[in-house]
Specification:
The structure is a homodimer. By secondary structure, chain A is an alpha+beta fold. Chain A folds into three domains: about 150 residues, no CATH class; about 290 residues, no CATH class; about 30 residues. Helices cover about 65% and strands about 5% of the residues of chain A. In chain A, the strands form four sheets. Chain A has a four-stranded antiparallel beta sheet with strand order 2-3-1-8, with helices on both faces. A two-stranded antiparallel ribbon of chain A has the order 4-5. Chain A is globular and about 85 Å long. Chains A, B: It holds the Pfam family Anoctamin.
Chain lengths: ~650, ~650
């Protein structure tokens, strides 16, 4: 089943197909003709100047195939121009990363052999499609109600109106085989092939896997310290002071060092100094016709006061209601817990000691279900808030989800630790929550979609074989297979999971030192299952340039600040520390608070003192800036020479 | 005594003199000739293309005048080119601020009438002089030891070797008269003429006065609330809880709103989006010859490891020693205080009740003296650390000075408040420190220099009159007068003073509500005395483009965080609050700590939520960016058209 870049069905396409476009099967012919013309048209006429061909699937007995599936490709020349357009950074002859320009193309390293990766080509095609702008057309031909606004993206418009169902990049079987082998198929102790991942899936995803790897390695010392704690001081809860101190220092240093690692990665991938493109409105954004204050053009606008009203009058109350519900469920859990403990105390045997864990397990499952339901509600609400830009949408979504997930997952632990002050229950509850949620996550995230996908694959294979006999499955089969795959919704859920794991470790692991061990084990399997799901379960996602992990850095930092406070409070509660201040609690509390303030101050100073970008990359960036200033100066002085005489 | 821009001594200069250059009086003739030629040379030959003339002072009986004083001016054409060079932002036809380009000059608002202010012209000349770079000369002619490095600033080199004594901009008597009238001479209740100040002194100084004004206004509500507290609850120390809460909210909102004000001012002055120039090394920077890693050119370099050693082995211990000394002095003060209180208790009459204030007054004077001495030491040390860039020098100096000043001024107050818990003494000590330091500051800062300057002025006037009879004093007299004036060392000390006043108000004013009133009164006179000293006591400073108050914003924010902690602790100590928790201190402390954490979190969220730049300016900035992207696109597509056929 090879396909790759070689063109095996010459009747279908005479170019390397990179991106698939699927229109609704009842799309009017005139609209299709118009769209294809616009895509094929020359750039100076406002077209995208790409190659596009229809894919005709043979009719099948059980269902009529969608006739409106197209593959898009491009000439190399067009791709190189597009690379300059999107502001791609590539390695220059002298080893620094520079913005690619067509004029200087020969001065870039390895210009001739595979200069642009598949993912980059697909990203460029996506960008060119997205920025295909309406000209003078008032509406989409055949759809008088589907208005177009001059200068706005045609594809976004078609997408938001349901004419364009989806468009996605095709997998490259050869590369995928090679990548998956070096990534997760061979049994090895080496690091992940981050550069290859970036090559195939883009920087955003590669950064996620880089972070996952870094986080896992950072946890190893903690896990190593945790094991003897667990083995030898099993019932010695009050020995965790040292561990808490370690925790504090670790969580601060961890995040600061990651910033530097991420800057190094992003520099090597050319995304660190790349400028952000002017952001297009989201596909789902709608509003009354008005004037954009920035561009001065006529387009749909939505007053931000209305959005504020929706946020404060609907979203905020809804989130509060959900939080209340979460607290209510927590109280039910505690009732169950006491009931189980009472039964155990009345009749302590094996059956009842197992029963002790049942409430926690049920609670963990309920938490996961609530998180899942809330996630959908949050997405719906944030969509309804009608944010104009994707970045603003994402920020509001992340904030909503983080607040709820944090409370939902950790509220019971905080309650047990600081209100009930029951360290035995805390440890037991923490362990059950952690293990249950890990198991559920792995199932939900990888095995379930894999199983569904396998069933679907088999069906498609059987169908195709029936139609074409025993021939290898070429482009048609691959496109049909991938069209039906699930869409990968971005790194959001993956980061969220890591965020919650980070919370379990940094907030409470001093009470249950084995937490770090469990998270390390989870993350090792996570790497494999995530890698597998990216390669075989989901559609290939478009690569997304990323210079850092974005809002998640802030989220993790906030968590580490909360961790300082929590750990200090746990230290203050430990019998060991309390023993030093037998006569007065007041003094103990004052000292703990003082230490906490010093630690927080220290944390801020540390974050301030450690440069976010390593020295040698700073020098490289300064070099680039210096060169562009020098070039500017030259331009200015030739300008003078022309002016002067 | 008019002079202004009209040229009244045509034998001396045939252009408007803007900047004065003073070389050492024993400078070799060949060096002078070389320097003047380089300044006058055309830009394409690497010269500055400025106009420069010698000023010859008539010989005087008592002393020989320095023959090496020069005035520098420029043609309008050169200034306009220079404006593009330094990246000046000016108001465009459509009301937005845009980077000035010579090609589009006619599209800027008011291009014809007084387009460039005096201060801008002088700034451009300074920039052109500073970036006059060595070409192939190996050393300054006549000085074989004074090496030059290709591409490095000639003027900086001459300055650091003592050949160039100083260069400064000339006052413009007409403008100055107008400015000083509208600024401080007329009795008025209007605001300061910030735009005029910026026009005459540049953005850096105008922002300082803007901040001073804003701070003073922000204090007015606090002062108004403080007065009844002071009048009616004179002995009622425990009523300050409400005031402390007000304090907390105030200090947070104050700084957030200032950021927006400052962005508005900076946008209107065209400095908000202006790019920073590539920073030249400081004049005093020295080191062994090596290669600059950024430019690849040969120049003096100084290993940062050596600098780190100097910082950690000398500077840090020195600062710690000074802090120890400050604590020692504080302890002596407390001894004096107890001694005075004992005397008063033994024999309470008017004389001994006055004696009660003596230790505080002495201590306040000693604090001021220590601050002054430390300031010199810190400057010397930071200079010795040999920082390459002025910005790095400034950061290290500010950090050193702030830490010491903070401890020196506030340590005794913290000690009284939290160790001795004596609110009566705290109030008395605060009042004495505040009033004494204000009086001392005003004297040291304005009246003393003014008095010295007046004496000097009279001497110069007399001398000139003797030489020239009763003729008006033209250029020669003005230059001689201004050459001998003191140099204004920048806004550092002015901001430092405001920082300490902010500390007195935000940290402790709830104990002594009159503090805000005193600071308001002080700042009103401060505006007048600062305005006066800028106009008549010091040399005119070069204008400095500034987009915000820089490191001081951070300093004030840090202070406001400390204020939250301090105020919460003061609330916790108040008898009024303590009365609510008669049986247990523990509960009280826990509640206070919890409230403190909530307030701190609230503060951070507030800082995060309030946008630093007002909406309408964000839109303007986005417009600018959009336009430049559009222009780029046009450039790219013409590029295609050229390439394609």
């Amino acid at each position: 089943m090879q396909l790759g870049l070689s063109v095996s069905d010459s009747d279908v396409s005479s170019f390397t197909p990179l991106v698939v476009l699927e229109l609704a099967d009842d799309t009017k012919a005139e609209a299709i003709t118009w769209l294809l013309n616009r895509i094929r048209d020359k750039q100076q006429n406002g077209g995208a100047e790409l190659l596009v061909n229809q894919l005709l699937f043979p009719a099948q007995d059980d269902q009529k195939p969608n006739p409106n599936v197209f593959v898009v490709g491009s000439t190399l020349q067009r791709l190189l121009n597009g690379a300059e357009d999107v502001g791609l950074f590539k390695e220059f002859q002298d080893g620094t990363m520079r913005g690619f320009t067509y004029a200087n193309r020969e001065s870039f390293k390895d210009f001739n052999e595979g200069f642009l990766s598949d993912a980059e080509c697909q990203y460029i095609i996506k960008h060119e499609l997205d920025t295909l702008r309406a000209k003078n057309e008032e509406h989409v031909p055949g759809y008088p109600k589907l208005k177009l606004y001059p200068g706005k993206s045609v594809v976004r418009r078609l997408q938001s109106k349901g004419v364009l169902i989806q468009y996605f990049p095709l997998h490259n079987k050869e590369d995928l085989k090679r990548l998956s082998f070096s990534w997760y198929k061979k049994f090895k102790l080496s690091l992940q092939p981050l550069d290859d991942i970036r090559h195939y899936f883009g920087e955003g995803l590669a950064l996620y896997f880089g972070f996952l790897e870094y986080f896992t390695f950072a946890l190893v010392p903690m896990a190593l310290i945790g094991i003897p704690y667990y083995l030898f001081d099993w019932e010695d809860y009050d020995k965790y002071v040292l561990f808490a101190v370690f925790n504090l220092v670790w969580s601060t240093v961890f995040l600061e060092v990651w910033k530097r690692c991420s800057a190094t990665l992003a520099y090597g991938w050319g995304t660190l100094s790349r400028k952000k493109a002017f952001e297009e409105p989201r596909a789902g954004f709608h509003g009354a016709l008005g004037f954009n204050p920035v561009t001065g053009r006529e387009e749909p606008v939505y007053p931000s006061s209305k959005r504020q009203l929706r946020i404060y009058l609907v979203s905020v109350p809804f989130v509060l209601l959900c939080l209340y519900l979460s607290f209510y469920v927590m109280m039910v859990y505690f009732d169950m817990e006491f009931w189980a403990i009472n039964i155990y105390n009345e009749n302590p045997d094996i059956a009842t000691s197992i029963l002790l864990f049942v409430p926690s397990i049920i609670y963990a499952v309920v938490i996961e279900i609530m998180n899942l339901l809330y996630r959908f509600a949050a997405e719906f609400l944030t969509d309804w808030e009608n944010h104009r830009l994707e970045s603003s949408f994402q920020n509001h979504l992340v904030l909503k989800v983080l607040v709820f997930n944090f409370v939902n997952c950790f509220a019971s632990l905080f309650y047990i630790a600081f209100v009930m002050q029951d360290m035995v229950l805390l440890r037991q509850s923490l362990a059950t929550l952690l293990i249950t949620s890990q198991i559920l996550n792995q199932v939900m995230e990888a095995f379930l979609p894999y199983w569904l996908q396998r069933r679907r694959n088999k069906k498609v294979h059987k169908r195709m074989r029936r139609l074409m006999g025993d021939k290898e499955l070429p482009l048609l089969g691959q496109v049909q297979l991938e069209t039906e795959m699930n869409t990968y919704l971005g790194t959001f859920d993956d980061y969220l999971e890591q965020f919650l794991l980070f919370g379990y470790v940094s907030l409470f692991s001093c009470v249950y030192p084995l937490a770090a061990v469990l998270v390390v084990l989870n993350n090792i399997t996570e790497v494999y299952s995530d890698a597998f799901k990216m390669c075989h379960v989901f559609k290939r996602p478009f690569s997304e340039p990323a210079m850092n992990i974005g809002v998640w850095q802030l989220a993790f930092e906030t968590m580490s600040i909360i961790a300082v406070v929590t750990n200090c409070a746990l230290i203050g509660l430990s019998p060991q520390v309390k023993a030093y201040f037998p006569e007065s609690d007041t003094q103990l509390i004052l000292i703990v608070v003082a230490i906490e303030h010093v630690l927080l101050a220290f944390k801020f100073i540390l974050a301030f003192v450690i440069p976010d970008v390593p020295k040698h990359i700073q020098v490289n960036l300064a070099k680039l800036e210096f060169d562009s200033l020098e070039a500017l100066k030259k331009r200015v002085s030739t300008h003078f020479l022309k002016k002067e005489p």
